[in-house]
Amino acid sequence: MEIKEIKLHQLEMDLKNPFTTSFGTQTKRFITIVEAVNADGLSGFGECVAGEDPLYSEEFMDSALIAMKKYFAPIIIKNGISHPDDVWNLLVPFKKNNMAKAGLEGAVWDLYAKENGMTLAEAVGGKKTEVDVGVSLGLEDTDELLLERIKEKVEEGYKRIKVKIKPGRDIEMLRKIRDKFPDIPLMVDANSAYTLDDIELLKAMDEFNLMMIEQPLAAGDIVDHAKLQKEIRTPVCLDESIDSYQAAKASIELGSCKIINVKVGRVGGITESKRIHDLAAEHNIPLWCGGMLEAGVGRLHNVAITTLSNFTLPGDTASSSRYWEEDIITPEVVAENGVVKVSDQPGIGAEVDFDKMKQYLKQTDTITADNDIDMVFFD
Ligand code: OSB
Ligand code: MG
Asked: What DSSP letter does each residue of 255-272 carry, written as one string?
């Protein structure tokens, strides 16, 4: 592959509705769309999903942008690669900064698929032609508002409902949900809001027949989650704690979870996601694809990775219209009765619509072979 230039399109998008988790409320999304252009002028697209502030993980949009501009983009252009898997190997000496790496690698994957006339799903080795999806609902000011939201999403046909919880917004809220919706596939996500001191409360959640509890304890933790899983019936699903293949391996070996939420950005890209996928499959740990309130490009990458066989549980890849008045791709992602059809068009399977993207675009930085790799260390 010959990558001539990499463009970093920096967007500021308003969410249709504020999204509240145990770490705060957001009304906007700052997203970098990565465009990798080859010698023929063909473009591949990726999305950097880093948050606005380092609250979900240590990365944030400014740090990711610097990591991409200063190191990763010029290194990819100057070194050259023959397959998207080479991106991960090339960047291995650089620790973490996974969302920055994944944004770039994603653009290379899309370009690779397009150069070879394949869908991104085919390029990554996925076989499904449609994927099941659920929806992730943020905390609301009142339980009544949340019940309304749940009703709406159940009626739209989503395959499962995920609700955010935090101390003080858990048992009573879940009881009200179960009173009204005794049988819906329901799960909760704590975004690391609890500790082992809350074990009695976490045990009490067993009565709600939850599909799983996502990331109840600290973001990097693996040991305490293993202790917790032994004490509760509800399956533990890890999100924030699985930030690498090694973390997935440790969690599986220690019994820290029964399910893993894979986010391509969090683990550093598709190549690393596939390794985790295969490892989990070997150990009968089912997966689902998480979300980071992505715009259309990241959303389509999520659809593609979900076509791999061990993504057996519905993911968080809801319709574009759940998040945005207008997404940046044509056609948008649409979930019908909780199913998203995989496009048969090359690459991510939709056009990045620059006319639509213009309304959100703050700045584009372009990296070419002329950009120096500004490093103190060298070999
Ligand atoms: O913990 O899964 C999470 C959004 C931003 C950061 C972290 C998380 C989430 C979500 C929403 O739950 C997923 C989505 O709808 O994209
Ligand atoms: Mg989560």
From this structure: T--SEEEE-HHHHTSHHH
Residue ranges of the alpha helices (H) in 241-345? 245-254, 264-267, 270-282, 296-306
For the stretch 232-283, pLDDT in tens is 999 999 999 999 999 999 999 999 999 999 999 999 999 999 999 999 999 9
Q: What is the rounded distance in angstroms from the CA atom of residue 116 to the CA atom of residue 196?
A: 50
Q: Is 356 one of the catalytic residues?
A: no
The H or E element that residue 13 is part of is: strand 3-21
CB 23 within 8 A of CB 56: yes
The sheet with strand 3-21 has its strands ordered as 43-48, 24-38, 3-21, 361-368
For the CA of 291, the closest atom of ligand 1 is 16
279 within 8 A of 269, measured Cβ to Cβ? no
Q: Cis omega before residue 331 (within 30°)?
A: yes
Q: How far apart are CA 274 and CA 264, in angstroms?
A: 9
| 216 within ligand 1 shell (Cβ under 6 A) | no
What is the pTM for the complete model shown?
A: 0.97
How many C-beta atoms surround the C-beta of residue 235 within 10 A?
Answer: 16
H or E stretch at 177:
helix 171-180
Q: What does the alpha-carbon distance between residue 2 and residue 78 come to, in Å, rounded to a whole number?
A: 10
Around ion ligand 2, residues with a beta carbon closer than 5 Å are: 189, 214, 239
* Rounded Cα–Cα distance for residues 352 and 45 (Å): 8
